[in-house]
Amino acid sequence: MKHTLAIVGFGGMAGWHYDLIQDIEDLTVAGIWDIKEERRDYAASRQIHVYEGLEDLLSDESVDLVLIATPNDVHKSIAIQAMEAGKNVVSEKPVTLCSNDLQEMIDASARTGKFLTVHQNRRWDEDFLTVKKVLDEGRLGEIFRLESRVHGSRGIPGDWRQEKEHGGGMVLDWGVHLLDQALLFFPGVKLNTVYATLTNVTNQLVDDGFTADLGFANNVHILVEVGTSNFINLPRWYVLGTDGTAMIEDWGKDIRIVRALGVDEKDVVPVRTAAGLTKTMAPRRDDSIHTESEPEQKSDIREFYKNVMAVLEGREESRIRLPEVMRVMRLMEAIFQSAQEKQVVVFEQ
Question: What is the pTM of this model?
Answer without folding.
Answer: 0.95
